[in-house]
From TrEMBL, chain A:
PANTHER family: ABC TRANSPORTER PERMEASE PROTEIN, BRANCHED-CHAIN AMINO ACID TRANSPORT SYSTEM PERMEASE PROTEIN LIVH. The chain crosses the membrane at residues 6-27, 34-54, 60-83, 95-115, 135-160, 190-211, 266-285. It holds the Pfam family BPD_transp_2. This is Branched-chain amino acid ABC transporter permease. It comes from Actinophytocola xanthii. InterPro entries: ABC_transp_permease (IPR001851), BCAA_transport_permease (IPR052157).
UniProtKB/TrEMBL annotation, chain B:
GO terms for biological process: L-amino acid transport. SMART domains: AAA. One of its GO terms (molecular function) is ATP binding. Keywords: Amino-acid transport, ATP-binding, Nucleotide-binding, Transport. The lineage of its organism: Bacteria, Bacillati, Actinomycetota, Actinomycetes, Pseudonocardiales. Residues 2-234 form the ABC transporter domain. Signal peptide: none annotated. This is ABC transporter ATP-binding protein.
Length: 292, 234
């Protein structure tokens, strides 16, 4: 019983991080139909920005804010100066481009920050809370992880549902031509979409790094799990991304706790295949209407 | 109000419009007629800047539209309802309407929505619904209502009757006529359904293979039997 509880709590925390990363992928997919594999090294770079500031003696929170802000800028720059110039009619070109960006950003990080492992601080405790004489698997940092991802989800929902900018962003994502005819500056909305996605990606980078080690490829595993989570949710649905992240986090934690930790990546693949076989559009895909 | 001069445009090597000229007078309905592939939709797409002309010009009340980006057309008073409805089905009815008002840089006011709902009562009942549950006729009403919220001076309507039941077509055409009379709106109406279009239009322009065949009063076009048989199909 206690082991189950521990496993579920670990899975919940992990799932929230996958959810954040999946959300970043979904935001970009919805707006530009591109799976942004460069999201991982982008988040890695911004985490290094935080690390440099923290190691220079500034507070964790200043580093945290700087990482999110640099994510915003980096996302906007990548869209405006790289992605904007790829032919949108080609399906494979943008994917190759984000993979190329993946390699370039990796190399850049190794050059600027070095390729060695560096430890990254956490703002809250990394030890489980003590209840009586048992230790719960929920740490202070774990609670922070869950709450910060929840906060991001709520903020995004408010933005998309209740603001004019959010409405314009959605219109641009769903139908560029109609949006332009109605006066929406679609290019700006796409830049903003990439910028916001990179902020969410940066958050997942900070959450993975907290209390752990940072090196140029520390986010590479997350891109795989984040991608699986996003596909589970249907790639098009932010709610699906969060649900997909949680499902994946909990399942992998159960596999790791009860079956064996070496089977985790295999389990992720099995879950992905099972979902694609049963519901090819993802768990949360809305049935597309037929065009008449 | 809207003046098209020597407009020439194409896709790659294909010339879809070849030196088209006509005027759409203020407060009138100008029907653009012709067979499939005559260049009717391309004409509207070139006027609103979605296709850039290789020659010729379009002016709206003296303003050269060649210098206005597509995103700026709503602000200068040009609304284009593209073929195939253009409802954003992933949004709700109300969100589609709000988007219309954002185009002129404003927010949708209670008065705006009230007017839209009084013209199109069906939308009032379903304003919270996702637009993809609407029928074809309701979608056409929604896009016209959305275009009106930008308070345009010129409305370009591309095949509003496409795929709709005759009863609904009559309803929509009557509505367009009401708008023209009440607001002094200028309408350029592209239609395959020439008979219905000429019944509400003041003037008509007949296109064939990207060129203007004839441009005249609507009644004169409807009365010309040879022209009707050759180009209008009725």
């Amino acid at each position: 019983m206690q082991q189950l509880f521990t496993t579920l709590l670990t899975g919940l925390t992990l799932g929230m991080v996958y959810a954040a990363f999946a959300l970043a992928l979904v935001l970009i997919w919805r707006a530009t139909r591109i799976v942004n594999f460069a999201q991982a090294p982008m988040a890695m770079l911004t985490t290094y920005v935080a690390l440099v500031l923290i190691e220079a003696g500034y507070s964790y929170w200043l580093g945290f804010a700087a990482a999110l802000l640099s994510g915003l800028v980096l996302g906007a720059l990548v869209e405006r100066f790289v992605i904007r110039y790829v032919d949108p009619r080609s399906e494979i070109n943008p994917v190759i481009l984000t993979l190329g960006l993946f390699i370039v950003l990796h190399a850049l990080a190794a050059l600027v920050f070095g390729a060695r492992y560096r430890s990254f601080p956490a703002p809250f405790g990394l030890r489980g809370f003590q209840v009586g004489d048992t230790t719960i698997a929920l740490t202070g940092f774990g609670i922070f992880t869950i709450l910060s991802v929840l906060a991001v989800v709520v903020l995004l929902v408010l933005l998309f549902r209740y603001t004019d900018v959010g409405l314009k962003m959605r219109a641009s994502a769903f139908n560029q031509e109609v949006a332009r005819l109605l006066g929406v500056r679609v290019g700006r909305m796409l830049t903003l979409g990439w910028a916001l996605a990179a902020v969410v990606g940066s958050l997942s980078g900070l959450l993975i790094a907290g209390g752990g080690l940072v090196h140029p490829s520390f986010m590479d595993g997350v891109v795989v799990y984040g991608f699986v989570a996003a596909v589970l949710g249907g790639l098009d649905s932010p709610v699906g991304a969060v649900a997909g992240g949680l499902i994946l986090g909990l399942s992998l934690s159960l596999v790791s706790g009860y079956v064996g930790s070496q089977l985790v990546s295999l389990a992720a693949l099995a879950i992905l295949m099972a979902v694609l076989l049963v519901r090819p559009g993802g768990l949360f895909a809305r049935v597309r209407e037929r065009r008449v | 109000m809207l003046s098209v001069r020597d407009l020439t445009a194409g896709y790659g090597a294909v010339t879809a419009l070849d030196g088209v000229s006509f005027d759409a007078a203020e407060g009138e309905i100008t029907a653009v007629l012709g067979a499939n592939g005559a260049g009717k939709s391309t004409l509207l797409r070139t006027i609103s800047g979605l296709v850039r002309p290789s020659r010729g010009s379009v002016t709206l009340a003296g303003l050269d539209l060649g210098t206005v980006p597509v995103e700026g057309m709503a602000a200068v008073g040009l609304a284009h309802v593209p073929e195939g409805r253009g409802v954003i089905t992933e949004l709700t009815v109300e969100e589609n309407l709000r988007l219309g008002a954002l185009g002129r840089g404003g927010r949708v006011g209670a008065a705006d929505l009230e007017r839209a709902y009084s013209l199109f009562p069906i939308l009032a009942q379903r304003y919270r619904a996702s637009a993809h549950v609407l029928s074809g006729g309701e979608r056409q009403m929604l896009v016209i209502a959305r275009a009106l919220l930008a308070r345009p001076r010129v409305l370009l309507l591309d095949e509003p009757s496409l795929g709709l039941a005759p009863r609904i077509v009559v309803q929509i055409f009557e509505l367009v006529q009401t708008l023209v009379r009440a607001d002094g709106l200028t309408v350029v109406l592209v239609e395959q359904n020439a008979r219905s279009a000429l019944s509400i239009a003041n003037r008509g322009v007949v296109l064939n293979l990207g060129r203007v065949v004839v441009s005249d009063e609507a009644a004169a076009l409807a009365g010309n039997e040879r022209l009707r048989h050759a180009y209008l199909g009725f």
